[in-house]
Amino acid sequence: MQSQTQTFERMESNVRTYSRSFPVVFKTAKNARLVDEEGREYIDFLAGAGTLNYGHNNPHLKEAMIDYLSTDGVVHGLDMWTQAKRDYFEALEELIFKPRGLDYKVHLPGPTGTNAVEAAIRLARVAKGRHNIVSFTNGFHGVTMGALATTGNRKFREATGGVPTQAASFLPYDGYMGEHTDTLDYFEKLLNDKSGGLDIPAAVIVETVQGEGGINVAGLDWLKRLESICRAHDILLIVDDIQAGCGRTGKFFSFEHAGITPDIVTNSKSLSGFGLPFAHVLMRPELDKWKPGQYNGTFRGFNLAMVTATAALKKYWSNDSFERDVQRKARIVEERFQGIAKRLSDSGKPATERGRGLMRGIDVVDGELADKITATAFERGLIIETSGQDGEVVKCLCPLTITDEDLLEALDILDASVDAVIQGA
Amino acid sequence: MQSQTQTFERMESNVRTYSRSFPVVFKTAKNARLVDEEGREYIDFLAGAGTLNYGHNNPHLKEAMIDYLSTDGVVHGLDMWTQAKRDYFEALEELIFKPRGLDYKVHLPGPTGTNAVEAAIRLARVAKGRHNIVSFTNGFHGVTMGALATTGNRKFREATGGVPTQAASFLPYDGYMGEHTDTLDYFEKLLNDKSGGLDIPAAVIVETVQGEGGINVAGLDWLKRLESICRAHDILLIVDDIQAGCGRTGKFFSFEHAGITPDIVTNSKSLSGFGLPFAHVLMRPELDKWKPGQYNGTFRGFNLAMVTATAALKKYWSNDSFERDVQRKARIVEERFQGIAKRLSDSGKPATERGRGLMRGIDVVDGELADKITATAFERGLIIETSGQDGEVVKCLCPLTITDEDLLEALDILDASVDAVIQGA
Amino acid sequence: MQSQTQTFERMESNVRTYSRSFPVVFKTAKNARLVDEEGREYIDFLAGAGTLNYGHNNPHLKEAMIDYLSTDGVVHGLDMWTQAKRDYFEALEELIFKPRGLDYKVHLPGPTGTNAVEAAIRLARVAKGRHNIVSFTNGFHGVTMGALATTGNRKFREATGGVPTQAASFLPYDGYMGEHTDTLDYFEKLLNDKSGGLDIPAAVIVETVQGEGGINVAGLDWLKRLESICRAHDILLIVDDIQAGCGRTGKFFSFEHAGITPDIVTNSKSLSGFGLPFAHVLMRPELDKWKPGQYNGTFRGFNLAMVTATAALKKYWSNDSFERDVQRKARIVEERFQGIAKRLSDSGKPATERGRGLMRGIDVVDGELADKITATAFERGLIIETSGQDGEVVKCLCPLTITDEDLLEALDILDASVDAVIQGA
Amino acid sequence: MQSQTQTFERMESNVRTYSRSFPVVFKTAKNARLVDEEGREYIDFLAGAGTLNYGHNNPHLKEAMIDYLSTDGVVHGLDMWTQAKRDYFEALEELIFKPRGLDYKVHLPGPTGTNAVEAAIRLARVAKGRHNIVSFTNGFHGVTMGALATTGNRKFREATGGVPTQAASFLPYDGYMGEHTDTLDYFEKLLNDKSGGLDIPAAVIVETVQGEGGINVAGLDWLKRLESICRAHDILLIVDDIQAGCGRTGKFFSFEHAGITPDIVTNSKSLSGFGLPFAHVLMRPELDKWKPGQYNGTFRGFNLAMVTATAALKKYWSNDSFERDVQRKARIVEERFQGIAKRLSDSGKPATERGRGLMRGIDVVDGELADKITATAFERGLIIETSGQDGEVVKCLCPLTITDEDLLEALDILDASVDAVIQGA
Q1: Per-residue pLDDT reduced to its tens digit, B98-126
Q2: Helix (H) or strand (E) holding B65
Q3: Which residues of B touch C (CB under 8 A)?
Q4: Binding-site residues on chain C for chain A (CB distance < 8 A)
Q5: Is the ipTM here above 0.90?
């Protein structure tokens, strides 16, 4: 394999990460299966960290894309109007907004999550005339400097060359202070305290389930109360649905479970459905305080991504069968993960299961233990990653479209890997 | 047309820009021609603001992409290793680095220019342990908060909701203080002055030709001296080649004309060759101070883009015939633009021509005049934009692959549009 | 009185504050008594917000100052060496440091508290190579931009013209989250959490009793644990003893009660003993990372203030009789304040007493009620102010040297004022 | 002397500066003479870096202060009204504002220059709703974090522990780019350039003569044009007259020479006249946007300083005789400095003289040479310091009240010191 990877080792920056966990060269992929250039197959429980909800090379989406290409549809046109964009807007309105009673305008910033977050918090500041943004412990919202201010991870925060981030405040996420403390009590006290040190924020930005932070799940009542507090204090509520959105939790938007309506929503990752870079910011119409061109970027409105995004909406979101199927699979994963957590606990390694929909994790407390499990699983043909501040949570982000066969095989591999680690330890 | 655009008007954020200048709905595109849904054709002198150097739907690149898709090549894999990535690295090394005597490592950040700039300046800060970044008047390097600190445009700078950018200093670009002042004298004086207020920068970031800033061309001696000053003061030199790179100026890298070797280079826009979001940061190997994962992003290493980027390198950069052809066309544009500038000047509207390669502009001094010219040209079937602080420069960013017929037709349209404006005024 | 105050109304900025509560023109003052130009006397329970611990025009200190002036001692000499400075250093060492087992070097910054705080936090950053400073809810550490980052009061924080403060994080002070929550659990959790959003701080800055914040008293165990946490995480502990120091709590340094040893201490306010501007920063010798002249200011080392400061140390701190007398008076105030709080509570206005030494307050919950009480007291000849985020705490900061007669008279006035308010309401 | 200074060496922070140049212990001082504890006399050409314009222990001022103390006048009263404050305001209005046709309101911030600057720039931001402040190369405006943003000196700027200053931009001071370039052309071009990178500032802060920066003198036309530019662009003009004010340049305010009227003025240093900490901010009445208490500080309105300040105004500013005497002495110094510069130049060490009033310097180009001259002068009984980015300017800041005898003796010492250095070199 030396010959296969030396180009990377010579030419790729040290910053590379995932190839350290999975040091093979991949060649092809279909739905939940990746194949390396030696022909070995792997089931993919990482799926682009939540980017491939509809699987690798989804045939419906691929067909739409190739059709578009074959007729020389406009691929790149900055933010000019195209048929592809109109189709996307219309599908979004008909299939997503209307059935959910939502009314949003759409901003297409640069095609990445961090860019959507930068646009969202900047819009909030402009709309409210305040600079502060509240985010939460263990939150991840991107690494460009504006977004980084709201991202808790020290790995990134300490790599700014000493420049402190600005204009954001962290508050404890749901459950952060133990099960008997409602962390929103602290937020509300600070808001009402004229000398508590919290500048009244323009907005709160929150993930309903924290992916990178360790599959931490905000309670539905907590989310409702957060919305109420924001309304009471004239603060905008931004739900960052970049990882949890597009069906991952069993609903198109992860906040649907709580029955709340954010003022601003960010989506990316699985939005194109095909792994193409794409992102949008949704905003209540009255918040659209942008003047022409105040936020730009070359790749805003990437037409190929809008073509596949439209196809994905039509294929999976025309009725609720896809949602129900995700929830069905979620219960399978939940049950199996609970079993694993129990076996780990019984063997003296305390572990717990948590998640919402197919965004699930097993918190094994110890990052090294989690690494052993995922490394063992990789040897056995399962790509699965960890998250959490110390990488202590083994997480499932499998394609929502995974076949039951692959899902069960993957869970069997994970089961066996955990057992091997328990016995080997 | 009301019926065709009302979806956009209802659903798209006010932030939209290019659709205001070109308010039609585009459908297809090939090389230098765009077609709207009424079937009307336009020659494209904007080309994605420099993103489509190889034209719309370049058949060689499209073929490579469809081949890759048809075999279910990995489209999205975070930064995992793929054959597509290795092919790209190898083509970059063989076709670009080696012939030019360059030795760089490659960082694939998020697939946008602003993301590449954020990564580049952050790396510079980490490598040098200093916070300041020097950029230049009229420079444009993106709008996420880290990059925005180096971008001169007030439209963006005033839309942060009041948050000041940090850790960057603007200095006058070549020619900014008139032809008799070498603006680098000021830079050098500040560096040597212990109380001049300039924090010794980690890096200078510069465009060799400023695109958004108004097709301002840095002299080759000025660039050489800038490199010398950076070397003398242990400051890194970052060339932002996002718009001017990939052949736009007649060389693959725009800095080749000056014979300088930047420490760090950013590329994006035309890097994929097909309008796909893609960006990389090149760095001298000894500057690769990143630790694993210190800078991330979901869409880093977008395989489809690497497939088309590789195809573009192989098609256009295996020998110097493409470069020579670009230079040939550049001379045609230069001559015609000089003619236009002369006619404008003769009619009492002082105008000058400038540029390098096929990055050329006519400075008509007055933004309203420039708007009239481009609006008239659009009516006649030419998409052409302005740049400069007041939109006073009519600019050519046509595909480098434009046919001579289209090039001459476009120049004829521009000629006629200018004449119409002269006569109408 | 119109004629007496119209000059102020015409010429003094709207920013003025205390003259709004006490709108008379004062002329003379002695120990705890102020006299206005109509000859009316007031007992002073504000005492320069803790600046006049030894009373107005303390005769011992005044004599020292006049003696110094009469021999043409150097009044102003920047930071040059003078006999007055040496005398001060030696008194500090002999009377304060040695008996308490302390070993500090002394930095004389500009003669104000905010300046001392700016110097202290900057030194901490330089010494630790980290930018963040942790301060606490309701903390007050000054209003220049560096210090303001650690000050919780929105009144000041919102008057920066939109510029956000930087490089500081607020955490909940002792008791902030209710009596059953040890707020240091949250601090420790954040320190140990790699993605909690807390940048490891260079230092924690804390008041052992928060004066402006509402006479909030940190528990002695909480302070000890705070010191332990700082030691365990290599974080510097700064005690801001600007208001609570110089005997106010019954010890020279307020942190003596807890038996902790801060790495850095700031003092000002009563440090000169005579109301003269003066401040110093004390630091453990190994932290003295300053290079010559890295932090300066014209009035650092104000000799007249060092003359009176030396006289105050010699007069009041040569043995423990002054401390004991302060503690005796503190018990009187405590008892009377408890009585007032009880009467208020009994009348349906819940109130509590708190404090340490002669830094005591009655929290009447309601800022308007507190204002009524202090306004009534002023009519009856007592100058007493409120503090707390809403001005809801009636506070005693009387001279420590107040006579028992004046103390009891003042308490009688306050008693009567409270009763009048209770009855009038 | 070991025994005399060991206390300092043991206990004083390394940050100390002036005692390194003048390592003796001073005891008494009168007008322009300092005496050390060995009884040795020195003529003082430093005078508290411009703080002692009326000399050490000025008898008129001392008398006023002792009278005030002896009647137990209020020394410290926060910002409460006192007779001393009213007297000061009235003297300021009658003796300073009215004769000069000025109309200002007065803000008394903390009693230091940096505090006055922080208050001034914050007020400008609040009044204009913009964050940027323009200051100039080699400017010095204090070292607390807000003021530091406008101070050019790297010694301070690099001692923030890595925290970058924010919300300020440096522009070239008059003459910075050579005598043929009007640096305001650059400022004006940037203001008119929508993408030049200069955020429209709330205010410009400028010293009419830069003291710490090297006795750089702004031309009167340059100052007038600066005022015009500010007016044209709705930018506030702040003159920082902390060092150049109070008669130093031969007028009470240094800007009187140029016939300009700043919107905001800061004074400190010699404002009390006696070396007591004191500062005020003057503002045009319509700019007084402060709300009560938005900017505070314990020692604002130091009554002793107002007593001496009032005495100084009455003694020296009731008519123009003091001004004329300063101008007379200035011509003596100018002539002698020109002679020294000529002798240095003739000996192969190029030197030039410059200044306004009694704020004068000899630029000897080389910091080491300047140090030799001042060290030699100190040996011979003259305290004189350097300024400029490299300490290359030997500067005169003697008391304005210096006797002709002392002035001439000091100049003789300087003459002889320069000659000794020339010969010794």
Answers
A1: 999 999 999 999 999 999 999 999 999 99
A2: helix B59-70
A3: 162-164
A4: 131-132, 135-140, 151-155, 157-158, 162, 164, 166-167, 169-170, 172, 176-177, 181, 185-186, 189-190, 193-200, 212-214, 388-390
A5: yes
